[in-house]
Amino acid sequence: MIEASIKSVQCISPSGLHRMAYKEWGDAANPKVLVCVHGITRVGDDFDQLARALSDHYRVVCPDVVGRGRSGCLADARLYGILQYVNDMVTLIARATPASDAAQVDWFGTSMGGLIGMVLASLPDSPIGKLVLNDIGPTLDPVALQRIGDYIGQELRFPTFEAAAAFVREVSLSFGEHSDEEWLKLARDVLRQDKDGQWVRHYDMGVAVPLRCATPASAQADEAALWAAYDAIRCPTLLVRGACSDLLSSETAAMMQARGPKARLVEIADVGHAPTFVHDDQIAIARQFLIG
Questions:
Q1: At 111, is the secondary structure helix, strand, or coil?
Q2: pLDDT of amino acid 108
Q3: Neighbouring residues of 223: CB distance < 8 A, sequence distance ≥ 6
């Protein structure tokens, strides 16, 4: 069984220093690096199956974005946002590719992780060679955003792991069909016990602060900025869409095929937001695009 090592890197924000933990799979000397970044309430453990499958070709690096999982938190919750996350990923890539003056990585981003990759890939001299955007685009459905915002801002506590796992499964049904064992792993990865023995979600509730502060005007400005970033991307790009997604519309996906990097689109039937890439057929989609 291939196992990962847990490492961390020190990052900086306007409010001070913080640690970002990451899982690393494969040969530590392999210069071919794939960075996999999770969605807003998930963790790097989400990519265990994908990382194992691709570690024959890559060193796979799966961070816990600040405020989640094994990583530290930001002193100022207002800073939880894409620009801070991009800054942290630049620090991570510098750590992950220390031997190269022209560091390049490939990128797999689910939801929020895709937005981070989109912005990073848009920058001049970006280190991203190939980009996978998993069920995310510059235009985000406002009703779906409200659903996600309501979910992540609930400070819930559960008396048993079973009750907490049932909640995670219920709010994650859009991921599509999974076995009971797969659902348990998806729950275990994002639950922990607090000092009172109650089961809680793994992330800093402060990550919801910027969402609560959003206004229609700021949302419109964010969308315009994301489209400008998308149009600036020059690397090969794969867009994966859950065919039942309520976050990435088919209209937005069509626009992403027609402009910017002109992403190749693959839709996954009977899945909403977002495909988990724990199943062989989904992993094969990523392998074909990234490795060929």
A1: coil
A2: 99
A3: 138, 139, 140
